[in-house]
Specification:
Mean pLDDT of chain B: 95
Strand content of chain B: 5-15%
Radius of gyration of chain A: 19 Å
Oligomer: heterodimer
Structural class of chain A: mainly alpha
Shape of chain A: elongated
Radius of gyration of chain B: 16 Å
Largest sheet of chain A: 2 strands, antiparallel
Number of strands of chain A: 3
Low-confidence stretches of chain A: none
Number of domains of chain B: 1
Number of helices of chain A: 3
Low-confidence stretches of chain B: none
Largest sheet of chain B: 3 strands, antiparallel
Strand order of the largest sheet of chain A: 2-3
Distance between the termini of chain A: 57 Å
Number of domains of chain A: 1
Helix content of chain A: 55-70%
Helix content of chain B: 55-70%
């Protein structure tokens, strides 16, 4: 397989590379709640994956076999299935990072009693 | 149904889920919109890669646009059909709603 086949994988790696550091930087507790995280990905991702399977089957869109890996699941490239795990995951991380930043800013504006900022 | 029609239904369903079903009301919070604002920028970049390189191609009968793939115009933005923005909005909102809803449940169980 040539480098060309990894074009879609590259996009997923980019998403993870951009978001995973946020967990450390903001000390997010996302990975410490594996059940909640997995359930979120399953419950939110599944209907969209089903939509994707239908749309691909109906011919609304299709994938370039030369820019995807060779594995297919229900007519979708493996990467497209992984998309519905990666995107909900990076969404949760981004949402929690924004929450952490806003919480921090609030604490700085209104420090708790006895604390000198 | 076309991609356009399903995309509109998905956005409405996600909004209904947030407002009336799970009652997380994330779309009334600045935090969620700030997170979505960041995500949508990266969606345009990463989806631009998928569509600009023709990794994904669309049937012109299913979208507002045509088979042409301009950067902007003809029902496209950053090479992707505008329907993809609706798809992304619905997916991101649904994900956050489920995440927050499960968090509330967890907090209640502990209380």
């Amino acid at each position: 397989m040539s480098l060309h086949h990894w074009a879609y994988v590259a996009m997923l790696v980019f998403c993870l590379a951009g978001t995973l550091p946020l967990i450390r930087i903001f000390r997010l507790r996302v990975l410490r709640q594996p059940r909640r995280l997995l359930l979120t990905i399953l419950v939110a991702g599944t209907p969209f994956l089903a939509w994707d399977v239908y749309a691909t089957w109906a011919g609304h869109w299709w994938f370039d076999p030369t820019q995807t890996l060779r594995w297919r699941v229900a007519g979708l490239p493996l990467e497209e299935v992984a998309f519905f795990i990666v995107i909900p995951f990076v969404t949760v991380v981004t949402y929690e990072a924004v929450r952490a930043v806003r919480r921090r800013d609030r604490t700085h504006e209104h420090p708790p009693h006895g604390e000198v900022s | 149904m076309t991609y356009t029609a399903i995309a509109v239904v998905a956005v409405l369903a996600a909004l209904a889920l947030d407002r009336w079903v799970a009652r997380t009301r994330l779309t009334t919070t600045g935090t969620w919109w700030a997170a979505y604002g960041i995500i949508v920028v990266f969606q345009l970049v990463t989806n631009g890669w998928l569509t600009g390189r023709r990794i994904v191609r669309y049937d012109q009968a299913a979208i507002i646009g045509s088979s042409r793939v301009p950067f902007v115009g003809d029902g496209r933005l950053a090479y992707a059909p505008v329907e993809d923005l609706a798809f992304g909005f619905a997916l991101v909102l649904t994900t956050c709603v489920v995440w927050v809803w499960l968090g509330h449940r967890r907090a209640k169980e502990r209380a």
